[in-house]
UniProtKB/TrEMBL annotation:
Stored Pfam families: YaeQ
Protein name: YaeQ family protein
InterPro entries named in the record: Restrct_endonuc-II-like, YaeQ, YaeQ_sf
Domain of life, per lineage: Bacteria
SMART domains named among the record's database cross-references: YaeQ
CDD domains: YaeQ-like
Lineage per the UniProt record: Bacteria, Pseudomonadati, Pseudomonadota, Betaproteobacteria, Burkholderiales
Length: 180
């Protein structure tokens, strides 16, 4: 018998002073049975970083052909593809071929080992940005996960803070590869 997704609801208020983006989003996240709370919350942070009216969560782990989030234009072309975790070379190269911009957000303590083995293989991808989120911070984010959440995200001068009113987590990021 197949396991079903667990549904999470999040009201996410974003104050992104770097982009002058101020909006509240009512989000529904389907958490795959194999997904951790930490990974789901990293998807939420990735949404906050790139938020706009066209950015959506995809089938993600339920469909290996789709990234975790994407932004499609009116013709259906993928403008932005966002992967969370440590995808392999084939997944990244395919995303770079199909999308105008590709972001990968890694968050594990082993991310630097993963990136060391992958960096040379994806160097030719001019539309790829790889960002490593601090593993301690993302672990704290996982502890904030609730079935119903009210969250505020503030982004200023490249710094990210996410709070649920009780706990505030600063998520630092290191860019491992930038789009050229």
């Amino acid at each position: 018998m197949a396991l079903k997704a667990t549904i999470y609801k999040a009201e996410l208020s974003i104050a992104d002073m770097d982009r002058n983006y101020y909006e509240t989003h009512q989000l529904t996240l389907a958490r795959h049975p194999s997904e951790t709370d930490e990974r789901m919350m990293v998807r939420l942070v990735a949404f906050a970083i790139h938020a706009n009216e066209a950015l959506t969560f995809t089938k993600g782990l339920f469909d290996v052909e789709e990234p975790d989030l994407w932004h499609k234009d009116l013709t259906g072309a993928i403008e932005l593809s966002i992967q969370v975790g440590q995808p392999d070379e084939k997944v990244i190269l395919k995303a770079c071929g199909r999308s105008e911009h590709v972001y990968v957000y890694s968050y594990a303590a082993t991310s630097h080992i993963w990136w060391k083995g992958l960096a040379n293989k994806v160097e030719r991808c001019k539309n790829l940005t790889v960002v490593d989120l601090n593993a301690d911070a993302t672990e704290q984010l996982g502890k904030m996960a609730q079935r119903t959440m009210q969250l505020q995200c503030t982004i200023q001068d490249g710094q990210i803070w996410l709070t649920d009113g009780t706990t505030t987590v600063e998520v630092t990021r290191e860019v491992l590869k930038s789009e050229r």
